[in-house]
Structure formats: C-alpha cells, structure tokens
Amino acid sequence: MLSELIIPEAHCWQEWLTFSDLFFFLMKSGGIDFLDFVDKLASRVVKGDHQILRSNHVTWLLAQIIRIEVVTTALNTDPKKVETTRKILSFHKEEKASDPNSVNPQSILLDFISSSQTLRIWSINTSIREYLNHEQLQKGRQIDEWWKQFTKGERIMDYMNLDDRSIGMFWVLSYTMAQPACEAVMSWLTSAGMTELIPGSSVQLNERIMVMQECSPLPMSLLSGLSINLCLKLALQIEESLFFGQVIPSIAMVETYVRLLLIHPHSLFRSHFTVISLPSLESRVVIIAYAYLVCSTLRSADERNKKRDDSLTQRSQSTQSILSKPTVSLLLLEILNYRLIPLYRYHGKSKALMYDVTKLVSMSKGKRGDHRLFRLAENLSINLILSMRDFFFIKRDLKGPSEYTETLNRVAVTSLAITIKTRGIAEIEHLLFLPSLLEQIMATCQHTWSEKTLRYFPPLMRDILMGRMDKRGHSIQAWQQDLRILIIHTTQKRRAVSIKKEIHPGKENLMEGIHTLKFLPLGYNIKFSPASEAETTVINQCTQLLSPAAEPSYVDTYLHHSFPQHRQYLCAGAWMLMRGHPENINSANLARVLREFSPEEVTSNIYTMVDVLLHHMHMELQHGHLLQDLLLKASTNLAFFIWINELLPFDILLLALIDRDDDPHALRIVLSLIERPELQQRIKLFCLNRGPPEHWLYSGIFKRTDLQKALGSHLSWKERYPPFLDDIAARLLPVIPLIVYRLIENDATDTADKVLNAFNSFLAYHPLRFTFVRDILAYFYGHLPSKLILRILNVLDLSKIPFSESFPQHISSSNPVVCPPPEYFATLLLSIVNNVIPPLNSKSKSGPMADTSSNSLRAVHNKTAASQSGVVNASEGHKAFYQNQDPGTYTQLVLETAVIELLSLPISPTQIISSLVQVVVRVQPTLIQSSNGLQGTSSFAGQGSVLPTSPSGGSTDSLGTSRSTPSASGINAANFVSRSGYTCQQLSCLLIQACGLLLAQLPQEFHAQLYSEASRIIKECWWLTDGKNSQKELDSAVGYALLDPTWAAQDNTSTAIGNIVALLHSFFSNLPQEWLEGTHALIKHLRPVTSVAMLRIIFRIVGPLLPRLAFARQLFVKSLQRSLTMVEHSYYRTIACSALFGSLVYLVNSSELLKFRITSPPDRALHLYVVGSKNYSREPITLNVEIKQLFIIDSFSGFHLHLQTLALLLNTIADMFGRNSQPSTPNEASGVADLIDFLHHAILYEGQGGPVQASSKPKLEALGMCGKLMEMLRPDVQHLLSHLRADPNTSIYAATHPKLVQNPS
Fold it and tell me: 258 near 318, Cβ under 8 Å?
C-alpha cells in the first residue's frame, strides 16, 4: 500500500492523511510492532524497492508516531538501537528546491520533515548524535527563526488568512514544537476576550457568568496537516476548556474541537460518555469516560482493561464537580446531536450511544422542570434511532418493557419498519427476537398505527401489529368517565345553576355538553361536579387555574393537590375553555404549571390534547360548522400554544399529529402549522445564523443566538446558559422527513412535493439527508410519481453526488417507457468495479493485456476516463471522512448512489433487471471480441473450435436464445476496458460481482424479477432446448457452462448460464438472511426438470447457499436457548415466550431446549401459536410442565430454509427419477450419484452446523423429511438414498442416532 501511495503522479495527499490516521492509531494501540515494521520496510529497500525513497512521505509517516510512548520505549530498549536509527534515517530524501511559483504546504512539510525527525531522534537518545545528519539539524533552525517572528511580535499570526508557505511552516512546527504550537492555537481561540452573560428577566442575579466572545474557528486547511501529536494535545486542551473551564466556551472552540475529531476519526475520536446523569438526580453516579472508541488491537484484554479502568477512575473523581454545572451535559448533548451522529455511525457506535442517551432520557422524564436537558436528549435519541440502518434492540438484554418515552417508542417502530423493508434483517437471531422486541415496545406504547401506515410496513411487522388493540379512543373515554354532572356558577351571585342534562359515557358525551357551553354569557364560570365530592375534577381545576381572573397562588395548589391521572388533561381542558378565543384563559398560569410538570407529563398532555382536539372537530362538524373554519381555528389555537406563549415543544406536537393520520384532519392541521409565518421566520433565522450546511468549511464567525429566541420560553425558563448549536428549528430536522413519509402513506404525494419544496434549503442541514433520500425511494418504490422522485432527489446537493453522466437525462425523459441503453447500465457497474469492489491483487494467468503494472495503470485510467464516461474519478474515493459523512465512506456513497439511480428510473423493475442481466450475460464475449479487434491477431483465436458442440470459446451461440452478435449489446467495449484499468478477462468477472452486489441492495420487488429472468435465460438456452443433443453432449456442455467465470475467463469459455450462475452466487452472498427465503422461487421457476443437465444446474445454483442456511438453524437453536434462559427470570416471560415461540417452525425437541421448565404468574396464561392456517389459532397450554414438543409455525422464521431447500432439491430429483415421471430419454440412477453424495453431505453439514466431520450426525427431522420424500422416487434412486431414512434397519445414520437408539419404537 505504501508503494502505491508514494507514486508522485497519483497526488495522494488525502490518502496519506487517512493512512496516517489509521497507522497512528494502530501503532499507539499496539496493533503494529514498530521495530518489526522498520525492519521490513528497510528490507524492501535493500531488495531493490526504491519506490519508498522517491519522496519523504515515509519519513513524514514515521515522524507522526515518533513521540508515541510505545515507540520511544522500543527505541530506548532496542539492543540494536543504533542500527534501527540508521534504518530510520536511511528513508530520508533531500527534496529538490521547490519552484517558488508552485509552493504548497505539502511540499514545504516534506522538505523540512527530515530535519524534524532528526531533531526528535536526537532528543530521545543523544548517544547516537554522531550518526545524525548535521545539515538536517541546522535546517531545523529555519523553523525556529520563522517562529520567533511571531513570538517576538514582529508578525501577527492570522490563522484565517495564512498563505501556503505559512501553513506549511506551521505544519512543520507542529512536529518540532508541538506544545508552543498548541498554546498559540489556544491563544487564538481565546483572543476575542470575555464578556458577562446578561441573564433573562426570569432569572435571579445570584452569580456572574462569563462567556468567551466569538472568533473564527481554525480552518480545515490548516488543521488537516498538523501532526497527530499536536492534534491530540489540542483536543485535550480544548476538552479541558469545554468541560472543566470556569468560562463558557465560544462556538469557535466547539467547532474547532469537532473539526479535529472529523479530521482524525480514528486517532482522536473517543466515546464521549457511557452514562450521563445529573447531580440533581439524587444519588446517581455520573461518569464521563474518555476512552478510545475502536478496540481492535493486538494487546491483551487485561492490559486494555487496566488502562481503561485507570482512565475511568481518574475521570470519575472530577466528574461530580464538573456536572454541577448544567452546561457540561447540555454542551455534550448538543455536540453529539448536531455534529457527531455521522461519526458515531461511521464507527458503528450509534447503538451504544443510543443506549446511553436513552438511559438519561429514562432517568429524566419524571423529573419536574427539567425540560431543556430532557428534550435535547430525546431529540438526540430520535436522530440516533432514525440513523440506524440495521437491527437494534431497545435494551441490551431485552429484559422488561421499554423505558423509552411514548415518542421514542413510536419512532423506534417506524425506524425498524424502514430498516427491515429497505435493507432486510441480516441475522437469523434478529428474526427470532423481532416479536419479542415489538412486544417490549408495545408494553408501554399506547399507539395504534393506521391501516394506511401499516400497508407499507414490512409483512413481518404488519402481521404482528395488525392485531393490536386500538387504544386511540381511550383518552376520550377516560375523559368522559371522570365527569358526570355539569354545574354552572355565576361569579357575581355565587349560586349554582344545574344543567338538567346528565352526561353518560357512550351515550351523550362530554364534548356535546361543552359545545353548548360555548354560547353561555361570559359572566358564567364553568365547573364540573365529580361523582365523588371528595375529588376535584379536571374542568373544575382547569377553570380555577386558567380563568382570566385566576390567582397566581392557585398554581402551587394545583401542582400539590391535583391527581396525576388528571394532569394529562390540562392542555385539553385549556383547549376547551378557550372556546376558540385564546384570550379566555390565563396563559401565565398555564405556562407556569407546564414548566413545573415533568417532561413525561407534558408529553402526555400533548398526545391527549391532540386526541381531544380531533374528537372535538368531528363534533363541531356534526353541528354544522365548516371544516375550513375549524381548521383555521385549530391552527390559531395551536399557534397560541407553540409560538405566541411558547408553552409546548413544537416537534413533539407535530409527531403526535402525524401519528393520528387515521383521522382525516390531523395531517391538514400539520400542514397549516408548518406553513405558518412564525415557523418560516424561525427557519430563516436558523439558516442565517447557522452558516452553510457544511459547517466544517465555514470560516466566518458563528453567531450565538439568544437563549429564549433559540429555544422558546418553555425550554429556556430559569435557564441562563446560552445554546451553542441547539435551536427549535433544528429540532424539526428529523420530523420533516417523517411528515413526508405520512403524506405519501396517505396518498398525498402532491402535498409531499410541496413540503419538500418549501423545506428544501432547510433539509440541507439534515446530517443524514443522503440516507433519507435512499430510504424513502426504496420504502415507497413503485408508489412515487416521477415529479415527486425529482423533488426528493433535489434534497441532495446534486453536484457532489457521483451520479452517472446520463442519469439526469433518463429521469427527466419525455418518454419514460424507453429503457436506458445498455451502455448506461454497464457504466453503472463499471463505477462499482472501480470504486467499490476491492482491487485485484493477483494477475491474470493469461492474456496479452496482463502486466505487472495493471493496478497502477488502473488508477491512471480512472483519472483520465472520468470526464468521458461519467465514471467517478478514482481520486475522489480517497476523500476525508468529513467530506463523506453520509453515508460514511466514498465506497458506500458510490454503491448507494447506484441504488438511488435505479430506484429513480421511470421504468419497471422488469426492464432494469433485464438490462443488467443482459450486460452480465454478454459481458465476456463482448469484451474479448473487442479486445481481439484492437489487437489484430488474437492469441485466443481458434478457441471457439476446441469443442464445436459445446457452448465454449466465447462463441456467439452461448450468448442467449437469439444467438445475436455481441455488437448488438450497444456497449463500446474498447473504451469500456480502457476505462477500467483491468484486462478484459478480469473486468468481465468483476462486472458480474458488481452486478450481484448492486442487486442485493435493491428492494425485494427486484429480486422476484431477477429469479424470473435468470430462470428464463437458463431454460431457453439453445443446447438445453435442442432435442438432437445426446446425453454425452449435454454432459459436456453443462460441464463447460458451469465452469466458474474466474476460470472460464482465462480460456474464454464464458457462457450465458455460467455468468448467470455466478451472478446468482454473488447476489446470494450479499443478501441479508431474511431475504434468502425468496431464493426458492428460482428453483420453482426452473421446474419441472426435464434433463439431468438442468438438474446439475439447479444443484450448482443452490450449492453455495446451503452452508448459510445450515448455520442459520444452529444459530436459531442457540438463540432460542439463550432467550428461554432470559425469559425464565423475567416478569414479562409470558409475553416474551408467546412472541418467541411464534418463531418456531417445526418440531423442536426437549433436548434442544435443554428441558426448560417455564413458569408464569398464576394470573396469566401462556399462549402458543399452534400449527394450522396462517390465521393463527391460539390455544392455552398448561404451565409449570416440561416442554416436550412444540409444533408451532410462523411465516417468517428463516432457520427452516435449509430443510425446505433440501426438500426442493429432492423434488427436482423426483421430476427426473420419480415413480411416475416419464423423461424423453431414460436416465440411469448412477448418472446422478455425485448429486446424491452432495445431498448426503448437505444433510450432515446441517446436522453438524458446520464442516462435516467423522462424527457428524444428521438431524432427526431431516431424516424424517427425506424418508417421506423418498417415497416419490424410483427404487434404484431410493437405494442410493437409503441411509437418509429414519429407519434403523436400512439407515446407518438412524441405527447410530442417539434418540432412535434410546427410543426404537
């Protein structure tokens, strides 16, 4: 890798920065032995690999790590330290004098780096001074002289306007004098001075709070070349100021800190906390653990744990005093929520962070008045949950119900639905745990999803959630049941006037009564008498609290004496008392009470108010009011809650409304709210103050927004600490995409288009907008009009996405029925080959284009060909992480971009699959014939005559049913090969691999089409359909046809069937476990089997798939045992068992369950799904008894696929060798003896759960299945399969099976 990076023509500076980041981390963590690395590098030079010495990059790389403790220790204790030092110095290269007109920071750094490293080695061990280059020591003084100009005040270091030479010199300084450089940077960040923070009117002046004034953060152009040693020092120094300092830091310091983490995601990025809490949460211990995130090192676990424990102990001693300042937790959450989510996802740490943050949410949701911290943590949790793109658990151990809030529970279900539908479930154990996970969420979630939402859910989740009881009307019923008799009091005469009308639940509800009250004179005060005189009812309390003349002192009375079950109706009561006029209630008292509520109570108020509001609208409509008037009034009243008095969090209100999309008015209210000028003004100010979406490139001064303007009165009450990145508008970034999802689910695609257009510039700040575009296109594939697809694509910064050059033309074509030409699809695959598929290390064994520099040529070809083909320049693939934060790497970006292109094309999946398959089928003959034409007389000429009756030699007969010539493919093969940098033989194989990888990323709608198209091409192959071929010719033909393309390419014997089979294998290997179930469709398409040749093709297709399926069964049984152990000690074991056993598919023996005894609370019954129709019938079984057998079935359990696949293979044999089959030509059983051997091996593999050993035994149920299916076969074939019976008299497997030996009956 070093040799490739050092090629000067490649201009690989960014690659070097990425490589050095990883190299530094691995060296510091002990993953690389320093002395061994130097020895091997020196030996390469001795053996003649002088490419290492072509520049000072290697010296620069070693200079990065020379200060690491493990390196200095190795040098000091090395008995051959002198020899090792001389080896290190031998890598130095004197750079040529740079052209003054072409000076850049990199060239200056490489020119001085030898001097820097020499000084460092000399400081480590002065005894080797005589071996050092004294000219290099003298050269280092130039840096000293340059730096003295600034330290003496002769020049001012303006970090925002440094020229290239100054940047380069400062980079060199970071290697020679890291501490002074660090101090200089910190001085810059604090150079603007401090000022006193002016508190709001609601805050008492009991202390002075100082805040740093703003300056510009350090630019990425300067930070990117600093030594990692300096970056570490700088990051630690900034951490001290951010989390330990006495002064509130500036936004510039926060942004600089974030930029350091983004530049060195491996060396600097740390797990910011394991558990966050607040000192006010009584005795809870708070720990902020700064430990290295990535743990893939070669050091012993004990050593790593010891160092981590020491670090945690040291940090925890000062944590309690740190977090006595609320700003620490708030700042940390802001940095995580608005800056580091992509970085956590890049390292695969989003789940761990989510668990930690949701712990904070769980601990804070019941604490009164702690709204700002809670809502920020909840918003971070929403972003983290929606960023998950693989299966996740609500709790690590799956014990007990979810501790999420109601909002997080609903978001979690939505995120799971998107993930499962667009990416599948990768692991079999996740399939097993899905019912338990949903039950865990539903145990505390009150929501029921609408039919319109459920129809887009994946079938797995839809089947589980459809039977859920609808609880949406419970809040209305509870409201009605609490109130019975309505009494009206006059405030002047204080006498009661009873309404002679009693309100009975289910007959005449409360809303009708309150509707009549709207027309009473304003002099009347409304009061409800409860069924019990000792209990104050909701409306009575609301009236006393919220009447315009209410005493402020009643707030304390309400807070201390109101019943918790009544508090959730406060906002609903306020809504009703408004009577359409917000001035009718005391907003000051309402605001005070809501602030003193716990966050959980405020959330409950919002959901209840939405239910009451929607019910009230229906009642108003029944009384003849116009819908438009009601919608306008609802919008106005909600604006009173959200914008005028800022009483409730807007993002939670919007989420509550879109979750009630079962009501036709809910989404219309949402639209009226997001179109209001108050929100548009907020968003405009947010975009203006926040700077560009690419925050890491902004060089200006960030504006600190006033606390109340940024967060509103509800969140900022009694708060003094200013926000850094937080804003009410920013809280809406995860909500707007969910609104779009709901609109599409409700067939309001035109409205969704308008929403995306209105919020297009705002969504640019979404940290994962690329993922949003990819997922929404996949989730609603086939249901989106072309206009909306274009609008969704415009959410992206199209200039920075590597779309194909012709893609814009195809999606905006006036004739969408026309499929793009083959050249388009081939170019798409070529982009994946060049940027996604790992480059080949081995060389082609034959072919005139193979040479020793094929890989380096590939890089050059990629550079020159980008402008011609639309294929992305290879150098783009080495961008820094911060340039590809979503989806994370350039490799992922290219692959996901290809997925987005295919999902956006205005053609059917059938056309897309057909085009891609045709490229794969024709790829090698097309490329080879083009190559032959370029080279004149090809060395491969005559290959086609090796076996005239076989589909070999690149013959046109092997291309498909039409026997058309390769030129008809429409691909300019000569240009195609030159753009790849590979030989035509290599490229043909890589394109097949790329196609399989791409197809595996697409939704399941494409998979069915692939199986259909693949089976069609196989069945219509001319030598299979030609009845004149003898059995010997067919055997010869199928042997060539099934030759692996990587071997066939070497002899130009590629065939349509061989390429299709290779494509299917590549496709299968990239499919998630859940989607493997669809593979049976391919075998069914190929049946009935009419020849042994077709039988061999089927076995060849299925062969590599069986190990994955066999492993899945073993994993299932282990997961089942672990789950039962977990459930046995849980109060919720009944729910978990019910969902868990719903995943079983056939007989599970007591030995596999380790003879568990399952107990349950006496007031609960354990229900199991019993074998039957898909509409499961549930029957209770007796508890506290040993589970002997469970005949349970479920439609999605993936672990049974192995037996089903084996059964299909046996059925294909029965097509040819069945008792009643009548093949056109007789076939001997001995002709398929190798296939029979394969079946034996596959069944033993499944029984072993891995590679077959001498002691391997088949599963009893496998023998039972085979014994039944063998009854269909001819006696001579049955004889070959006799050992696969469950009969001990005929089967050696059965005779030695422990269960059958113990129970011969």
Answer: no
User: Is the bond into 1104 cis (omega within 30 degrees of 0)?
Assistant: no
* Closest to 772 in 3D by CA, of 738, 732, 800: 738
* Residue 1246 CA, distance from chain mean position: 32
Q: What is the mean pLDDT of residues 1196-1218?
A: 76
What letter represents residue 1244's amino acid? L
Which residues is 291 bridged to in the sheet? 271
Looking at residue 1092, its amino acid is V
Pairing mode of beta strands 524-530, 210-212: unpaired
136 or 696, which is more confident:
696
3-state secondary structure of 349: coil
Q: What is the largest CA-CA distance in the chain?
A: 114
If one compares 103 and 1111, the residue with the highest pLDDT of the two is 103
Find the length of the chain. 1305
* pLDDT of the residue at 15: 81
The span from the CA of 760 to the CA of 792, in Å, is: 9
Question: Which of the four pLDDT bands, split at 50, 70 and 90, describes residue 1115?
Answer: low
Percentage of the chain with pLDDT > 90? 30
CA gap 830, 832 in Å, rounded = 5
What are 385's strand-pairing partners? Answer: none
Q: Inter-axis angle of helices 538-546 and 587-596, to 10 degrees? A: 120
- Cα(first)–Cα(last) distance of the chain, in Å? 65
Least confident window among 66-80, 378-392, 837-851: 837-851
CB–CB of 933/974 below 8 Å?
Answer: yes
Q: Which residues have CB under 8 Å from 773's CB, separation 6+?
A: 792, 793, 795, 796, 900
Region for residue 747 given its phi and psi (left: phi exceeds 0; alpha: psi -120 to 50; beta: otherwise): left
- The phi, psi pair for 758, rounded to 5°, reads -70, -35
Strands 194-196 and 1178-1180: unpaired
What are the DSSP calls for 14-37, one per residue? HHHHHHHHHHHHHHHTTSS-HHHH
Q: What is the DSSP string of 1126-1182?
A: HHHT-TTHHHHHHHHHTT--S--BTTTTTT-B----TT---EEEPSSSSS--EEE--
CB 988 within 8 A of CB 927: yes
pLDDT classification of 1200: cutoffs 50, 70, 90? low
Looking at residue 1287, its amino acid is: D
Rounded Cα gap, residues 776 and 747, in angstroms:
14
Mean pLDDT lowest among 910-919, 1196-1205, 1234-1243: 1196-1205
CB atoms within 10 A of CB 1175: 5
Look at residue 10 and give its three-state secondary structure: helix
> Which range, of 373-382, 504-513, 590-599, averages the lowest pLDDT?
504-513
Q: Which residues pair with 490 in a beta bridge?
A: 524
Distance from C-alpha of 966 to C-alpha of 988, rounded to nearest angstrom: 14
- Average of per-residue pLDDT across 403-420: 93
Number of other residues whose CB lies within 10 A of the CB of residue 284: 12
Half-sphere exposure of 587 (CA within 13 A, CB side): 19
Residues 6 or more apart whose Cβ sits within 8 Å of residue 302: none
Predicted local distance difference test score (pLDDT) of residue 1170: 27
Taking alpha carbons only, the member of 216, 331, 268 closest to residue 703 is: 216
Mean pLDDT for the stretch of residues 193-214: 75
Instruction: Please give the Cα distance from 916 to 937 (Å, whole number).
Output: 31
Q: What percent of the chain has pLDDT over 70?
A: 72
The residue whose two tokens read 């925002």 is: 160
pTM of the model: 0.83
